[in-house]
Amino acid sequence: MSEPYFSEQTFESNKYPLRGEYDCCIFKGLNFSDQDLSGYSFNECTFYDCNFSLAKILNTAFRDVKFKGCKLMGLRFEDCNSFGLSFSFEDCTLNHASFFQVKMRKTVFKNSSLLEVDFSEADLSESTFHECPLSLALFNRTNAEKCDFRTAFGYSIDPEINRLKNARFSTSGISGLLDKFNLIIED
After folding, report:
1. What does the pLDDT read at residue 16?
2. Which residues does 98 contact at the CB level (< 8 Å), separation at least 6?
């Protein structure tokens, strides 16, 4: 028996939708926290003000998905279906999320909180971090080539163990690249 298929629909109730495939759908104000979304497929969908905190996303497909004003705390994006994985985040909270070994080139993080996020071994190349706090975010053997960190803040990234070729930083953020040396940098 095949999974249900939904296209170009809007979902606005407190109940989360049935397991299935969703194309070009809009989700507003839904609470997916602690829910099992394993095996769902979201293609070209937009989520507004939804709560995904601690949801299970094993083999969940997020293809060209936009999250706006959503809470995605503690999600393990490495559990997602990696085929076509593509998303953007605006005004979201992703604290304590994990992107361990996730290939997510050209991802846009805009005005989103990324406190204590694990980007270890992820491919973030050409991604943008616009006005994002990155305090205690973990960058370990991460590909951040051509990333834009110019307006991000609070990060600590070791250039010796991460790929940063052609990444962009602001002058005020340079200290985040020198943390391991315990230097005192003053204006």
Report:
1. 66
2. 75, 76, 77, 78, 117, 118
Side-chain-side CA neighbours of 168 within 13 Å: the count stands at 10
pLDDT tens figures, 39-72: 999 999 999 999 999 999 999 999 999 999 999 9
Q: List the single range of 5-14, 23-32, 80-89 with lowest mean pLDDT.
A: 5-14
What CA–CA distance (Å, rounded) separates 72 from 51?
6
DSSP 8-state class, residue 8: S
pLDDT at position 178 over 90: no
Q: How far apart are CA 43 and CA 64, in angstroms?
A: 6
pLDDT band at 23 (very low <50, low <70, confident <90, very high): very high
Q: Which domains does the chain have, with CATH numbers?
A: 1-70+78-90 (2.160.20.80), 99-187 (2.160.20.80)
* Distance from C-alpha of 172 to C-alpha of 66, rounded to nearest angstrom: 30
Residues 59 and 39: their CA atoms lie apart, in Å, by 5
| Residues whose CB falls within 8 Å of the CB of residue 95, separated by 6 or more in sequence, listed in order | 73, 74, 113, 114, 115, 116, 117
Retrieve residue 13's tokens: 């109730």
